[in-house]
Amino acid sequence: MRLVVDLNRCQGYAQCAFLAPEVFAMHGEESLLYDPNPGTDGEADAELRENVTRAVAACPVRAILLELADGRAGDGPGGAS
Amino acid sequence: MTVDGSLERLKREGRIVVVGASLAGLRAAETMREKGFTGSLTMIGDEPYEPYDRPPLSKQVLLGRAGPERTALPRRRDIEAAWRLGVPATGLDMAARRVRLADGDEVEYDRLLIATGVRARPWPQADEAALDGVFVLRTRDDAAALEQKLAAGPGRVLVIGAGFTGSEIASACRERGLPVTVAERGAAPLVGALGGVVGEVAAEMHREHGVDLRTGIMVTRLEGDATGRVRVAHLSDGTTLEADVVVVSLGAMRNTEWLAGSGLGAGPRGIACDAGCRAFDIRGIVTDDIYVAGDVARSPHALFGYQFLSLEHWGNAVAQAETAAHNMLSESADRRPHLWVPAFWSSQFGVNIKSVGVPSMGTEILIAQGSRDERRFTGVYGYQGRVIGAVTFDQSRWLQFYERLIEETAPFPPTFTTVDRRPEGNRPMPADFPDPSVPTHGPTITLSGYSPADRRMTFTPAHH
Ligand SMILES: Cc1cc2nc3c(=O)[nH]c(=O)nc-3n(C[C@H](O)[C@H](O)[C@H](O)COP(=O)(O)OP(=O)(O)OC[C@H]3O[C@@H](n4cnc5c(N)ncnc54)[C@H](O)[C@@H]3O)c2cc1C
Ligand code: SF4
Fold first, then answer.
1. Does the beta carbon of A56 lie inside 6 Å of ligand 2?
2. One Pfam annotation, family name (chain A) (predicted)?
3. How far, in Å, CA of B262 to CA of B110, rounded?
């Protein structure tokens, strides 16, 4: 999994940290720290995926961009050129 | 619809080349595909990695909470590109519409997007910069090497320059329990970006967290031991400091050298483009087929008197990339201006610092909400009687409100009262920015006047 949080948009509501604490954590009162590439590529960690997906959906300002892809056919370095 | 169908042809079978395969390049490429571009897309990047995110490098990565190799950016969609990674572009032939690569290849384009960003300004003495233990922080590789060194538990880390990145590095070191000295030429950390009133708060944050902060000080020389490892830094006050890790955090340099001699309006201050992201040539004439986005761009902004603005901001790279991509595939009447209000965040010493607008244009500041002593406040910057910027320390929920004031060019000082206004917020203070002619470390916003050509030019009137 890969994700990025638009921290200009994020308002530190911490819903994500509540729903997927393995990936999102508050640091101080308002700062959000997150793991940009959680889980292991290629391996389906169903629970982690579900938690992160729920966190994305719960963010009130829709600041989280998530890509569930494990490897990318025909794209990315080593892909088609 | 086009009169001659050329736009349709471009979208169907045109060749688009993107130089700089990072945040701006990737988001632009995705936008082009979203807009129905089905032609060939080539992504050229000198780093050997697919696009990754830089802000975590000085935060999660240095804190040991995410591996530097696990910062790849999520994709919005497949872009079906030909990737040329690990190969820098070395030249541009505008007439032949060709990009030259370091491996001798040439790639032709119908539309070119330049998103080559910036790099860390190196320590000026090359032999000292080459000492083992001396770092900069811009890339994944930089972060990996620095993190490894920090994990080994050095005796003392010296950070040179207390801009945002330098301050974040110092903060991460302290969180790891490492002794840190920060040497800053200015009067306080962040002073170039946020001024002295806020810089004072930043200085207190450093000291409260155990940073040995030395302001008004320059590092004059780095000295290594017999094995070539950095050992001692010499300071401008005549003292020396032992340090086994030195992080040079002196701001950024634009990656424009590869365009030298191409005729494009590119130079040390960036590549000038119009509000629609089209690059200027050195004569000040806008090009039709070359676009610019992200940290390398200088673009005029309506809210700031159409001065050229360079922004080293994540959000700007994304927004400008989207606008550039849209305009590359649009008729002129459908093009959009890049009107993004600058916005930035930083996280250091457990405090969330955010800004909107251009604080560094401000001559005055009003603490509109909260209090500096509590490290939770909103500062509003005024310039010529209007609101020009705002900063929050752990009060980001209010920032949108101030962003609107900037957009509306609302009067300064604000005429309304705010919740949680304290006595210190009753009247504006001088914002206390350093003399703009003295460069500071990493201001992240640079105003660079009105000239599209980034070099000294002699005016030769045409003869008829
Ligand atoms: C440590 C760190 C922390 C940051 N923290 C924040 C933050 O908290 N908030 C915020 O708003 N912003 C932050 N930023 C800034 C943000 O990361 C940048 O604004 C963003 O990366 C700009 O994207 P870009 O694509 O324009 O340029 P870049 O990310 O610089 O990418 C340019 C790419 O082009 C490549 N390139 C250069 N020359 C050539 C060539 N000749 N040929 C081929 N490729 C070339 C470069 O190697 C690079 O890969 C931070 C940056 C760093 C380094
Ligand atoms: S839920 Fe959204 S707004 Fe809240 S902390 Fe997470 S990313 Fe930020």
1. no
2. Fer4_15
3. 17
